[in-house]
Amino acid sequence: MNNATTSTPRRTVIPFGPQHPVLPEPLHLRLVLEDEKVVEAQPAVGYIHRGIEKLAEVKDFQQNVFLLEHVCGICSFIHALAYCQGIEELMGVEVPARARYLRVVWSELNRLHSHLLWLGLLADAFGFESLFMQIWRARERVLDLEEQTAGARIMLSTCTIGGVRRDLSAEQVGQVLRGLDELEREFDMFVPVVIKDATVKERLCGVGVLTQRQAQELGAVGPVARASGIARDLRVTGYAAYGELGVNPVIETDGDCYARTLVRVRELYQSLLLLRKALRHMPDSPIAVAVKGKPEGEVVMRVEQPRGEVMYYLKANGTATLERVRVRTPTFANLPALLAILPGCELADVPVITLSIDPCVSCTER
Amino acid sequence: MLHNVTEVSAESLRDTIAARFPQGYRFITLTCVDGGATWELLYHFDRNYELSHVRVRVPKGAVVPSISGIYACAALVENEVQDLFGVTFEGLTVNYERRFMLAVEAPLAPMVRTPVAQAAARAGEMRM
């Protein structure tokens, strides 16, 4: 009699992260394995907890714009945008039209940057290094565009309460439009590889499936939810200038790693479209209005980051400092979905599945 | 400004939240605010892009019913609030015992402005 076929597999617990070759950020999971199969995953959050929410109660409400940008180095502008929109609602500030369009421009450059960074890392995670380099070359062009328009590549610091801090000249608009054309040519070179190559599909198709029902019940957001057939994208609500520009959520229905990749790849082209529209139809107006007084009251503001919905809760009391600044980032919302799709997968698939939710630990732990 | 806020007691919190789940409300997150003598817990929901909130105020030191048995995704944020504010949740499906967000050597409840003992004294003064 062969005991090996009837005995219960022994369970092993292994740490995945916070320092792991495949992880760009220090996510930490404790994986419970039976042989090579994951049976349970537990997150361990807090490795880079910085206490930004606490600090935001000490800084004044204007300084917080710069502080909250530092929640994330990839979508820095969009954090500042969510916060500024919240304060503007509390203070009844109407942002000039040109500033709203410029906010779309920098938001979509952040989205391009984020999706390209993620796509390159994914290629690296499944060992396709030449693809990784092609994608990150395109990402470099996006950073150049951010530098040309904002004067910085990561922390743009162009958003302010009441508008934006920089304008674009006609010459700069032309430069960015030409840059977008170059970017699109680069996308057209590597995107067919991402979506058609057999080795890529082998690693992504049918792996880490999140059903629509799971996505809804677990509160998934952004491309993770949209890849499971949930048509939710906060840009549809029309904040900044998205209402004038028009946004249709990109959705896929298979819910696997491949579907999440397709959503982000299609969103690259969507961002190009939105950027061109915003740049070509940008109205003439001032770029900011003077803000007087102090905020008072409570507000919840939500915007769509590259990874999904970010939510800011602000409570102000009529003084220069806020009583409470709460940030719920999209990766925090997608962690329950990740924990649901990991059990049952092979250990070798854990890096790709984990990356497929595009985890941003800097955001998550704040 | 905040609209669609339902104020409930701690006793009716679970029933109120449980009624939302089958109606398709998505749980966004939980915000804890230090209200001096009380904790103010604000549960945020979304349905078709419309926000709504459930607010419960409890004295500091009181135990708050966990909603993680209704919305599984609430377990992580309840652990975060437990770590950063020292609120105790009863019935948490996964309990990190105040070491979810904070390292073992980190001080407990760093977000608290008014410590529990001070809050109890203040509540006593208010009753006198």
Give a description of the structure:
The complex is a heterodimer of chains A (about 375) and B (about 130). Chain A is an alpha+beta fold and about 375 residues long. Chain A has a single domain, classed as Cytochrome-c3 Hydrogenase, chain B (Orthogonal Bundle), CATH 1.10.645. Chain A contains 14 helices and 8 strands. Chain A has helices at about 50-55, 65-70, 75-90, 95-125, 130-150, 170-195, 200-205, 210-215, 220-225, 240-245, 255-280, 330-340, 350-355, 360-365, and strands spanning about 10-15, 30-35, 35-45, 160, 165, 295-305, 310-315, 320-330. In chain A, helix 2 (about 65-70) packs antiparallel against helix 3 and helix 4 runs antiparallel to helix 13. The mean pLDDT of chain A is about 90. Chain B has about 130 residues and is an alpha/beta fold. Chain B has helices at about 10-20, 75-85, 115-125; strands at about 5-10, 25-35, 40-45, 50-60, 65, 90. The chains are: A alpha+beta (about 375), B alpha/beta (about 130).
In terms of topology, how is this protein built?
The complex is a heterodimer of chains A (366) and B (128).
Chain A: E1 11-16, E2 29-34, E3 37-43, H1 52-56, H2 63-69, H3 76-91, H4 97-125, H5 129-150, E4 159-160, E5 163-164, H6 170-196, H7 198-204, H8 212-217, H9 222-226, H10 242-245, H11 257-280, E6 296-305, E7 308-317, E8 322-328, H12 330-341, H13 350-356, H14 361-365
Helix pairs in contact in A: 2-3, 3-4, 4-5, 4-11, 4-13, 5-6, 6-11
Chain B: E1 5-8, H1 10-20, E2 26-34, E3 38-47, E4 50-59, E5 63-65, H2 74-85, E6 88-90, H3 116-127
Parallel strand pairs in B: 1-4, 5-6
Antiparallel strand pairs in B: 2-3, 3-4
The chain-level structural class of chain A is alpha+beta
Biggest β-sheet description of chain A:
3 strands, antiparallel
CATH topology call of chain B: Beta Polymerase, domain 2
Give me the CATH superfamily of chain A.
Cytochrome-c3 Hydrogenase, chain B
Level-2 CATH architecture of chain B: 2-Layer Sandwich
Poorly predicted segments of chain B: none
CATH class of chain A, named: Mainly Alpha
What is the CATH third-level topology name of chain A? Answer: Cytochrome-c3 Hydrogenase, chain B
Structural class of chain B: alpha/beta
The total count of helices of chain B amounts to 3
Tally of individual domains of chain A: 1
In terms of quaternary structure, the protein is: heterodimer
Estimate nothing, just give the exact number of structural domains of chain B.
Answer: 1
Strand order of the largest sheet of chain B: 1-4-3-2
Strand segment tally of chain A: 8
Largest interface summary: A-B, 36 and 30 residues
